[in-house]
């Protein structure tokens, strides 16, 4: 008896596309995990270093003295602020347009709270697992004319999950990521809440370390962008191919060539002439990663990078 081929419709194509997306997400997720691991290790060291820098410039006895004065004279006794934001600087010699040298400084903003771009990158996997879309901002590629109701819904859901926004009916006892990071590390400093009003001078060694620490946070954001671009590029091809396929057999042929697990039971759980470039053979070739390091190679690369970063600051 001749087997009846399964015809594809929009729902079945969506199920198949999701299988391909999971496949490509899994191929690159280690890169983000490694960037986060490097950042986490440097963050521990950064806390120790910044506390030493701050206390060298603002000893604890000065903090205690101002606190006692405030207890006696209220705000007239001086200003104190518990901060997780610090600026460090080092003196440098620069030259103007006429070649004359002058004294200046380089500075770095060292922060221990959590910015929104960083938060979406750092918690990307957790949010995706909960059905949220941490990539909504990347999807418009800075073209704000592309913002639509879905964009705003995704933005609201992500910000609520992270703790950047809250609703009145939420359980306020639940600590969200934003509050966890906001209160993770703080130092009492002399001055107001305006972070940039305080600049702590450091030597070349400390300056280079804090520069590496800030770069490691930026790397988490950068890797998020790279992962998104990688998967989107693959899925653009996949979706064009699936749109041209009429039967499950065609999608299965492509999945087998690429290495995606796909079977007919997955369909139950959830154009008449295909363009030649989207036939399974050609599309599989277009999706091929020419140089894809193994998981072990990725780990070695990450360890080497971390060792180089630590060597440069010791």
Question: What's the arrangement of secondary structure elements?
Answer:
Layout: H1 10-57, H2 60-73, E1 80-83, E2 85-95, E3 101-111, H3 116-122, H4 124-129, H5 136-139, H6 149-162, H7 177-182, E4 187-190, E5 199-201, H8 204-244, H9 248-258, H10 264-269, H11 280-287, H12 295-313
Parallel strand pairs: 2-5
Antiparallel strand pairs: 1-4, 2-3
Helix pairs in contact: 1-8, 1-12, 3-8, 8-11, 8-12, 9-11
Notes on the structure:
- The protein is mainly alpha-helical and 314 residues long.
- The chain has one domain.
- It is built from twelve helices and five strands.
- The protein has helices at 10-57, 60-73, 116-122, 124-129, 136-139, 149-162, 177-182, 204-244, 248-258, 264-269, 280-287, 295-313, and strands at residues 80-83, 85-95, 101-111, 187-190, 199-201.
- The strands form two sheets. Strands 3-2-5 form a three-stranded mixed beta sheet. Strands 1-4 form a two-stranded antiparallel sheet.
- A hairpin with a 5-residue loop joins β2 and β3 (101-111).
- α1 runs antiparallel to α8 (204-244), α8 runs antiparallel to α11 (280-287) and α9 (248-258) packs parallel to α11.
- The termini are far apart.
- The model is unreliable at 271-276 (pLDDT under 50).
